[in-house]
Amino acid sequence: SLAASPAAAADGAPAPQELGAMEGVASTFIKAHGVPGLSVAVARNGQLVYEQGFGLADHATAEKVLPSHLFRIASVSKPITSVAVFQLIEQGKLALDDRVFGGDGILRNDFGKPPYRQYVEDIRLQHLLTHTGGGWQNDGADPMFRNPGMNHHELIAWALANAQLSHPPGSQFAYSNFGYCIVGRIIEKVTGQPYERHIREAVLRRCGIFDMRIAGDTLAERAAKEVVYGTGGPDPYNMKVRRMDSHGGWLATAADLARFATHVDGFSEERDILKPASIREMTTATSANAGYAKGWAVNRALNWWHVGSLPGTTSIMVRTASGFCWAALANSREASGDTGGALDRMMWDLVRQVKSWKA
Description:
Layout: H1 16-33, E1 37-44, E2 47-58, E3 63-64, E4 71-72, H2 77-90, H3 125-129, H4 152-162, H5 177-191, H6 195-204, E5 213-214, H7 245-248, E6 250-252, H8 254-262, H9 276-282, E7 297-298, E8 304-310, E9 313-319, E10 324-330, H10 339-351
Antiparallel strand pairs: 1-2, 1-10, 2-3, 4-6, 5-6, 7-8, 8-9, 9-10
Helix pairs in contact: 1-10, 2-5, 2-6
């Protein structure tokens, strides 16, 4: 159908032929990448101007994707966690230079007694946010995907005792899910609240977002309005998604993510939930990696974004220098190939179908 959501009736709304062209872009992507379903949302100048579902939320029942469907967003969870940290920094409860472990660390000796292994006591909060903690990276030995029977506390204690860091913190970029798991525990320590509750109350509610939650692990734990994830690779229902909370555990609609981004996009002090200086710091790359800041990928064009990928899931959230925030969520991931990169290109193509938007 060519009917856009009521949100698209705003000024600069796509014309009917542009809506048709956008649908064509999405349909081409679905066919080319074997994706069951796709949900996209676009905000412009802080206002949601387009949201649409394409394809199937559940292959078995032929249920169609609606804009209200929730998807696992995988690593698009990281910018959300980062924003919560910057709120706490603004409140004077944290500092980027704070040590994480040891007697004078934020987490003190909560996860094991000193002496720690090499470099552990050198880790500072900013190293975790920038993936420069010295190791624990997303490879075959990623601590987050080991010891599935352990809870957060047991897993962190195990990793501190057994997973050797390879570099001095701050010196090298190594993408670390486990580092963001630790950031989640830092948020819990300083707020005295469970991570999920704190994010919902302190971050999401301030953005007008009320349905986001941490995903369940199994098909039986599927949330109301959540899509079913395509297989064709590792089983999407055989992972500890709930344990991934602060690095990859959230469920959201595409509109939730577009809306979240508009509240930290740096375009409106009135709308933003962080101060301009915090947003600048959060989106400034490090010397270790010119393409990554603190929870956001960045480039010279001053676009910020994050992609997410798990078995059964591909996601992206983008803030463009031209005043857009958008998101796209798919309920599958190709076993080979870069579904995230393809999703990114698809969204630029889709938004550029509307001439007046000048994306």
